[in-house]
Design brief:
Layout (H helix, E strand, L loop, with lengths): L7 H8 L15 H9 L4 H5 L4 H15 L3 H11 L1
Helix pairs in contact: 4-5
């Protein structure tokens, strides 16, 4: 399975089932979709549908792993989107 197309909410709720805020993540957003939105300088919290820095950091860590880049590469791209 290509994890780029994994839905973020599904992954997050499986990985962090006790975090109720995870239910607010856009149910149609994949890691690829998040990457593309950041590449187009879209606001990450609006794209994800949740405004929580812990969720963002966890998702960014997984996104970095999937895209085979460093966490700081993802983080720096996010800074450009703000």
């Amino acid at each position: 399975m290509d994890e780029r197309f994994l839905l973020i909410r599904d992954w997050y709720m499986a990985k962090f089932p006790d975090d109720d805020l995870g239910k607010e993540i856009n149910p149609e957003l994949s890691f690829s979709g998040l990457f593309d939105s950041m590449d187009n300088y879209k606001e990450v919290y609006e794209t994800m549908g949740v405004h929580d820095s812990i969720i963002r950091e966890r998702v960014f860590e997984k996104l970095a792993t999937i895209m085979r880049v460093g966490y700081m590469d993802v983080y720096e791209q996010w800074l450009k989107c703000r």
